[in-house]
Amino acid sequence: MSFFSSLGGQKGIPAKAPQIRKVQRTITKPAPPPATPAAKARSIGRLPPRPSTSSLTPPHTNSSRSSPATSSTTKRKVDSQDPDRARAIRGGTKRKLTTPPATPLFGSSSDSESDEEEEALARDSLSPNKKVKTTNDVVDKNPRRLRDVAHWNGKEETNKKQYKLVHSADFTSENGGKDYTPMFVGSTEDPVSVELYYPGSPRPERFNLAEPRDKQNHNPIADLIETTTSILTHFFPKSISDSYLNESTGLPYLLNRAYKTYDLPLFQSTLSTFNELITTSRVNHTLANHIDSGGLPHTPLPLDLSDRILAQCYSRTVSPHVERLREYESFSDSVYGEILSPFASEIFKATGLTHSSVFLDLGSGVGNVVLQAALEIGCEAHGMEFEANPAGLATKQAEEFRARCRRYGLAPGRVNLMRGNFLKDTHLLHDILPRADVILVNNYAFSSDTNDQLRRLWLDVKDGAKIVSLKSFVPAKWKLEERTSGDITALFKVEKREFWSGSVSWTNREGEWFLHEMDRSRLAAYDLSRRSRARG
């Protein structure tokens, strides 16, 4: 029994119901991912935004995407009658591009939090000498440095980029507080204000103890209780955390009881105990030692911790403007949808993504999967989005992400979110795509023309690169033989997999996804075999 399920009552934090999954015997499924709040997310029409912390079990979704607007191109069959194209397929010849580079969307605001240059913060992931081949069995020879040593405990450097943290209290103060109801009323009708301290910084976040009138909006009390629980769970050794997480005397239990019974003194004293624990443990190096010793797993970061941090970012930047994401043309490449965090985490594992890898999301939406890859894995993570509304929100979310990771004292991988057409952008096609170890493209709603153009892009990816899609780039029943050996498809090994219900925003049903691997040796081996048969 959890802390919150033991309390009961309407204001208690409800127990998380187990998710029932169906198994089709025709396809071998991996073990189901652990249940997380993100798995509980449900769609709203065609658009299921990542829910904000609007209940005491706030759900969190991950990964959004939409495609670029594309013009139709003349399709050309690649076969023995087109020798130049066939040579390009076999050798991965690069093509000349003239489109100007996209405008980066990350890193253009000011704030009270100082920032070291992103390149320095991600120096390990950017070094070409430190890349390792991404396979399911890969062992990373250069372990990730998870703790943000450069900014730990509020260290500052002048003349660096700065990012502003969006405080929870900012929401309850908007519109004169009309969207929220004070939970504990003090000497005035204004909500009581409290502060929450984080592991990596002496700067607290401000919270107003109020409830949203619309349950879909950010819930400060839910956010506060879930965050304290997550910090106690992951940032302390069990010898310390067990007593603070006790189901009948622990801090989350007491906070929830105070919330349910309107006991303001209990709520304030319990939160004060938590803040004192965090401050003392930061100063005496308990927190730093626990992270550095591996007590908090580095790669991957626990999914529930990653979900908590990303849910805070999403609720403060994307959720208030989620209606913008519904502004797309129906039945077009621009239809918006999100891949949720358990599915994204499964993709990271299946592709062997490490902190030394380069991750690329084509049609990255508001940047959910890009941020998750940078945080959960620690890798260099890029994304490109064509549509203005999700791309603009991605900028805001990336800035909040960097500031919030600092509060937790964690160093994510380098994040680069851009707006542009991924089929034409010179910077992406010349500088990022050829280096990418894992490429994600949610092509579920793409037209056949867009998918055909994407297939031609794969000529420029390196051997061993993994391409994940929701529609296969290899036609059903396709075979490598003489008449098809000049086709791009000949370069791929493809594996069909299934995702569980609750993995994507547009449906709660199970579905298929495809893992492609670029392997030019297949075609070379086939050519050698064909020549041997001809000589014989």
Index terms:
alpha/beta, 8-stranded mixed β-sheet, two-stranded antiparallel sheet, 16 helices, disordered N terminus
Secondary-structure map:
Elements: E1 64-65, H1 83-91, E2 103-104, E3 113-114, H2 118-121, H3 123-126, E4 162-163, H4 169-173, E5 180-182, E6 193-198, E7 201-208, E8 210-212, H5 220-234, H6 238-244, H7 251-261, H8 264-283, H9 286-292, H10 303-317, E9 337-338, H11 341-350, E10 358-362, H12 368-377, E11 380-385, H13 388-408, E12 415-419, H14 426-432, E13 438-441, H15 448-457, E14 466-469, E15 492-499, E16 511-518, H16 521-535
Parallel strand pairs: 10-11, 10-13, 11-12, 13-14
Antiparallel strand pairs: 1-9, 2-12, 3-4, 5-8, 6-7, 14-16, 15-16
Helix pairs in contact: 5-7, 5-10, 7-8, 10-12, 10-13, 11-12
